[in-house]
Design brief:
Helix content is 19%, strand content 31%. By secondary structure, the protein is of the alpha+beta class. A hairpin with a 2-residue loop joins strand 32 and strand 33.
Length: 703
């Protein structure tokens, strides 16, 4: 038996390599300065079971005797379905460990790597399976597996639907299993591939919490299981369709990477770790300029494209402070509505007689970057591409397949399809000064089969990655947004190849407050597109004041999704001031850590964004206050020894019917208090209307 240790700022891991079998994760917790006595892991052997202790390894199979779901399900013509392992350490240092496992039957080699990020404590589990036998190996399942303490019984996962993404749901892990499976071909609205597990009810700053995320943009499966034998495990991986992965001798299957971290101080610790990890290791924004404020044409113009209207929107956008203009759907051949044109990625001369050159000139004149909407993975049956290549779609021959948004899915497993798409996208980027692509994907996969009738979901995702990688290699200065009917493709796998997510097609500030709060557990603000929509939401018909809409979008990658060509002077001034204020605070919002705050009122969403000695505090009242008097908000993220100046950036305007007098500190333009007062006594909050917003700036006096 050999014990290996990994160490980071706030974590240690101990992995045992037994004399026979797969490695065992013995410890994952706060830093250890000593090597524990191995007898501490030798548990009792219960009656009425096996005569040997079963161990939960990092690569469990049906041969282990734990009676839990195995990581690996495979067979060779019905044989070799329960392999056992021999393992050896290939390399090891303080932050990474690689093992090579060989099935004793000689058919499978597993290369397993664990990396512990020194700064953020985030684990990355990487796995490859190789057929080292002489016959075809049918791979039915690989789920990266990490053990958990049996005390971890509280689960928070994230469900949703179109215009209602990132909705938290809480479950209790029974003696049994919980499973979250996605079969939609993209990351999905339904089951975000990440969750939290805790030993207590979820609190921002209380309890031991484990956070997990699978970096994969296709079908996936997450499982939690707890057994009567005292085992508990988390598993995640690509969900494979029947017969989808057949490994011939020498073939390799690369599993999606699993990311995980642990916090001793509630789920805010998970948010801090993942936000920092994404900035440092995932998103390609290193050294980039500040994230530009967008104007997007969709909710302003939809398919009503004409040069005068587009130019006027650009001029208005420049006047309010926008920095990038995104021409959304409707610019390409035959695209007058959503029933035709997808696949024909050339500018429609009937709408644009001089193509996009006049618009490019207008944008240059107004100091706006050029962005363009595309949906390369899709094709409309009413298109030249589909007429010429009807076989280029994912389908099972002879079977009916429903359309979705009147479109079908192109088969990206085919080299000629990827070549066609690259050629047209590359041409657009060469012909125009485009610096941004809004890459959309608006339908789920059904019967996703290749030309041979084989399930293609896993290879389709790899084909997408290949296309994106090639495009970015040729155009490294072009940013790409991952949009999929809003937030249906948000994960670390796609984010390694893009720069931004469109969190939701819903710009309603009420809904966005919920989505942005929970997506911040996994993603930093600068990768979350958040736009100021019109006063009346296009998706919910709710009406919000300008300050609530601006103050909500303020905390993401800001944009405008609103026809601002004919704003009155008051609205124009409010929008201009809000954008200017965002730009002033942009370095804090896009570098700081966002963490939830507990106001004591479950009808409120509150959070802080902190960077160095600068802090922003937001409190949003979702519905009528629970109490007639506001609580005092304790702001834990400050320095107890520091003195701070407090300024109000956004506040509810009409509150007289809920309180006769505001808290005294709100009567002043600015106020100075010590960190110890704000942390331990707190600021008395006003009594707020439903759908109202309070945003504060708290800055150290010597900052």
């Amino acid at each position: 038996m050999t014990l290996y240790a990994l160490h980071s700022r706030n974590a240690s891991l101990l992995i045992e390599q037994p004399a026979a079998g797969a490695p065992i994760l013995r410890y994952w917790g706060t830093p250890l300065a000593i090597e524990p006595n191995s007898q501490l892991w030798q548990r009792a052997l219960p009656q009425a079971g096996l005569d040997e202790r079963a161990e939960l390894s990092i690569a469990p199979t049906l041969a282990d005797g734990t009676f839990l779901e195995p990581a690996l399900r495979c067979h060779v013509e019905g044989e070799h379905w329960a392999p056992q392992w021999d393992s050896r350490c290939v390399s090891h240092d303080d932050h990474q460990l690689r093992f090579q496992l060989q099935a004793v039957n000689g058919h499978i080699q597993l290369d397993w790597q664990l990396q512990l990020d020194a700064d953020t404590d985030v684990l990355t589990v990487s796995t490859q399976l190789t057929n080292v036998g002489t016959r075809t190996l049918s791979l039915e399942q690989w789920l990266s597996t990490l053990p958990l303490p049996t005390s971890m019984t509280e689960v928070m996962s994230f469900s949703g639907r179109w215009v209602h993404e990132f909705q938290p749901q809480r479950d209790r892990l029974p003696l049994g299993s919980l499973e979250y499976t996605n079969l939609r071909g993209r990351t999905s609205h339904d089951h975000f591939p990440g969750l939290l597990v805790s030993d207590t009810d979820f609190k921002p700053d209380l309890g031991t919490v484990y956070g997990f995320h699978l970096g994969w943009s296709g079908n996936h499966r997450q499982r939690l299981e707890r057994s009567q034998l005292g085992f508990c495990q988390y598993q995640a991986g690509a969900q494979l369709m029947p017969g989808e992965v057949q490994l011939k001798p020498g073939d390799v299957f690369t599993a999606p990477k699993l990311y995980a971290c642990r916090s001793e101080r509630g789920y805010n610790g998970i948010a801090e770790r993942f936000q920092t990890f994404v900035r440092q290791r995932i998103v390609p924004l290193s050294g980039a300029k500040e994230r530009p404020v967008h104007i997007n044409t969709w909710e302003a113009l939809y398919f009503d494209h004409n040069q005068d209207g587009l130019d006027r929107l650009a001029e208005a956008a420049a006047r309010v402070g926008a920095e990038r203009y995104v021409l959304d759907d409707g610019w390409f051949l035959g695209r007058r509505d959503d029933s035709a044109g997808l696949g024909d990625w050339v500018v429609d001369p009937d709408v644009y007689p001089q193509l996009l050159h006049p618009l490019a000139a207008t944008l240059k004149k107004n100091g706006l970057e050029f962005g363009l909407w595309v949906e390369p993975e899709m094709v409309n049956p009413r298109s030249r591409l589909h007429e010429q290549h009807p076989d280029w779609v994912l389908a099972i021959a002879g079977q009916h397949q429903p359309l979705a948004r009147q479109q079908r899915v192109l088969d990206l497993t085919r080299t000629e399809v990827r070549e066609y798409l690259f050629k047209h996208l590359n041409q657009l980027l060469n012909d125009y000064p485009i610096r941004y692509l809004k890459w959309d994907m608006n339908r789920d996969h059904v019967q996703a089969a290749d030309a041979d009738g084989r399930a293609a979901g896993y290879r389709q995702t790899l084909g997408l990655y290949t296309l994106l990688d090639r495009l970015r290699a040729h155009h490294p200065d072009v940013e790409i947004e991952s949009c999929a009917s809003g937030g249906a493709r948000m994960d670390f796998g796609i984010l390694q190849r893009t720069h931004r997510f469109w969190l939701s097609d819903c710009n309603d500030a009420h809904e966005r407050q919920i989505m942005q709060q929970w997506s911040a557990l996994f993603f930093p603000a600068e990768v979350i597109g958040s736009h100021i929509g019109p006063p009346k939401s296009h998706t919910t018909s709710r009406v919000h004041s300008n300050d609530v809409r601006i103050g909500t979008a303020f905390f993401g990658h800001l944009g405008i999704e609103w026809d601002i060509r004919d704003l009155d002077d008051a609205a124009f001034e409010e929008l201009s001031q809000g954008i200017a204020l965002h730009k002033a605070w942009r370095p804090v919002i896009h570098s700081g850590i966002r963490q939830a705050l507990d106001t004591g009122d479950d009808a409120q969403i509150a959070f802080a964004v902190s960077h160095n000695d600068h802090h922003l505090i937001s409190v949003f009242q979702q519905r009528m206050p629970t109490l007639a008097m506001g609580n005092s908000l304790k702001i834990r993220c400050l320095d107890a020894k520091q003195r701070y100046q407090i300024s109000i950036l956004f506040e509810p305007k009409n509150t007289g019917h809920l309180m006769k007098i505001k808290p005294e500190w709100m009567q002043l333009k600015t106020m100075q208090l010590s960190g110890i007062e704000l942390m331990n006594i707190g600021l008395p909050l006003p009594v707020m209307d439903p759908d109202s917003l309070l945003v504060l700036a708290i800055e150290a006096l010597n900052a």
